[in-house]
Design goal:
By secondary structure, this protein is mainly alpha-helical. The chain has helices at residues 2-24, 29-40, 52-72, 75-80, 82-108, 112-123, 127-136, 143-170, 176-212, 215-235, 240-251, 257-282, 285-290, 292-316, 321-330, 336-347, 353-380, 389-403, 417-428, 440-448, 461-466, 482-495, 511-517, 525-540, 545-559, 564-568, and strands spanning 410-413, 433-437, 453-455, 474-477, 501-505, 521-524.
Length: 576
């Protein structure tokens, strides 16, 4: 018992440290869990051993991952991106799988079934790595970003058929088509029945649960549905993960989708972390080092082959070369679902140990390399990944049109709730402004209300110049991400050393860094909300309103240099 507790302490210590390091360098925590498994597993320090219990818990990590994918499934999104999803996505998946399958058969002497299994695993790319990087770099709506997300969405949808296909490939006998037909028919019948029943009852079940007004009951109900449907699909000869995907897809059609996703995330993250630890434990470092030449060849083939496939199909779709290069780099790595499929292929004995070790090692290395490759490709493309020249020129022209008649205006960078409130105040004082944002829906909603808002990445000098930064009276940066806000501040300050820059931040810890970058004033939301709460507490405790406000003014006078004279000066009753 004590030995198990000691191992648990070691595992948690390694997880806390390495996940923190991964976050510090803006890398997915998945890579930290993989490193833990490699270091502590039977092929590393041998502190952790494989067991049926650990594998069972890890499998539930995949179950909850598939559940999350089901939650994010949207027919509207699929319809809006159908050309990218089913055009580029299917071409990338098919060509990569075929090419990898041929390489596996020729280079490793494996059968064609093994080649298909490896090909399908390698064809997957990492949604966790790529989506996070594109979001951080404001590239989700660039041409390369849209193409990448379309392919990733198709890959997510392809996981369910792959989970059916691999067991059919592993079935004994030579009648593959009969096995596939039986598996497909079985899957269609079970899934159709689950979806038919689920669509009629899922919303009603959650309506009843919601009346209890207990978050605990809601979480338990969600877990019951996920595990129950997974059990039904497993009993029907299908996979646990397939049932979880159906559960997520059914819940996504209800109004409880976002609430359920937030509640289930801690379970998913912990169990999925354990899954990636077990994947890392399977990697035999000694075997890999003894076959280093094969590994290096596999990594080059994986990254180079996937990049070449994506480059060719995007160029065939008449995508400019710069955007094609970025799309190719963004999809050139392996992905988390690929790890799921390669492990399933190992369990089904579709591939031997040697192929599994080399393929798994190559996939992991490609995921470690991915962030650096994406950044490097963006720089080599000559546009830092902000979209092709035609796309950028059209966007800048539109910004210039919106700012053409403005002078002594305010540039609002980011139009969320804070940006919207600032726009209201400026409108009341009849101060002209232009707002920049990258959320198409937000831009459409605000534009319908007559607000002067346009699509644009404010951390680009040419975008700010098109917005009239040279003749503006002030700039407001409302980004929730301090790193993005800092980039904007530095660019603005370099272009206009004299212009006032007001920055919103969520916490005090970023104030000094933003001011050092050139911000005139930084407003931490946590400070303002705490001051209001403190003042209200004093009033409710019997302290006069005037006295409570004096405390607030005293703290603000120390904090905000530009408003110090206002807060320090005596105020008459009209200002109170």
């Amino acid at each position: 018992m004590h030995d198990k507790l000691f191992l648990l302490v070691i595992l948690l210590t390694a997880a806390v440290f390495l996940v923190a390091v991964a976050r510090r360098f803006r890398l997915p925590s998945m890579l930290a869990y993989l490193a833990i498994g490699m270091a502590l597993g039977p092929h590393g320090l041998a502190l952790l051993a494989e067991s049926a219990e650990v594998d069972s818990f890890a499998e539930f990590g995949v179950v909850f991952l598939m559940f999350t994918i089901g939650l994010e499934f949207s027919l509207k999104r699929l319809q809006a991106m159908h050309t990218l999803v089913f055009g580029l996505g299917s071409a990338q998946m098919a060509l990569t799988a075929i090419g990898t399958g041929l390489a596996t058969a020729l280079a490793y002497g494996q059968g064609w079934r093994s080649g298909i299994a490896v090909g399908l695993a390698v064809a997957m790319s990492s949604t966790a790595i790529v989506a996070r990087m594109l979001s951080d770099r404001f590239e989700l709506h660039s041409r390369s970003g849209r193409q990448t997300m379309g392919v990733l969405l198709f890959q997510d949808l392809a996981v369910a058929p792959c989970l059916i296909l691999l067991p059919a490939l592993a079935a004994p006998g030579d009648d593959l088509w009969r096995s596939l037909a039986v598996a497909a028919a079985q899957a269609l019948i079970v899934l159709a029945l689950l979806i038919w029943v689920g669509k009629r009852w899922m919303g009603r079940v959650f309506d009843v649960v919601a009346r209890v007004r207990s978050n605990e009951v809601l979480v338990l109900t969600t877990l019951w549905i996920v595990v129950g449907l997974s059990f039904l699909t497993a009993q029907s000869g299908l996979s646990l993960a397939l049932g979880a995907f159906v559960a997520g897809m059914l819940i996504s059609e209800t109004v409880y989708r976002h609430h359920v996703e937030a509640d289930i995330r801690p379970f998913r993250d912990m169990l999925l972390g354990l899954f990636f630890v077990t994947i890392g434990m399977m990697l035999d470092i000694h075997y890999v080092l003894a076959n280093l030449h094969k590994l290096l060849l596999a990594v080059m083939l994986l990254i180079g082959g996937k990049a070449l496939v994506v480059l060719l199909i995007t160029r065939a779709a008449r995508t400019p070369l710069a955007a094609s290069l970025r799309t190719a780099a963004q999809l050139a790595q392996a992905g988390e679902f690929g790890l799921v499929l390669i492990e399933l292929a190992r369990q089904l004995r579709l591939i031997d140990v040697g192929v599994f070790q080399i393929t798994l090692s190559a996939m992991l290395l490609s995921m470690f390399i991915a962030p650096f490759l994406i950044d490097r490709a963006a720089r080599l493309s000559g546009d830092l990944g902000r979209g092709d020249w035609a796309h950028k020129a059209a966007a800048i022209h539109k910004i210039a049109v919106h700012s053409m008649d403005l002078g002594q205006h305010v540039v609002i960078c980011g139009f969320g709730r804070t940006g919207g409130r600032i726009a209201e105040f400026l409108s009341m004082e009849k101060i002209p402004f232009i707002a920049l944002d990258v959320d198409p829906q937000r831009i459409a909603d605000a534009g319908a209300q007559g607000i002067n808002i346009v699509f644009g990445n404010a951390d680009r000098r040419e975008v700010l110049q098109a917005a009239g930064i040279g003749r503006a009276r002030a700039v407001v940066v409302t980004y929730p991400d301090a790193h993005s806000a800092e980039r904007v501040v530095r660019i603005v300050r370099a272009a206009r050393p004299d212009i006032p820059i007001v920055v919103r931040t969520s916490d005090d810890k970023d104030v000094a860094r933003l001011k050092a970058a050139g911000a005139t004033e930084v407003i931490p939301e946590v400070l303002e909300s705490s001051l209001l709460i403190a003042a209200e507490t004093l009033v409710q405790a019997g302290i006069p309103v005037r006295h409570a406000i004096q405390h607030v003014r005293a703290i603000r006078a120390k904090r905000y240099a530009s408003l110090r004279d206002f807060y320090d000066s005596p105020r008459d009753d009209r200002d109170r």
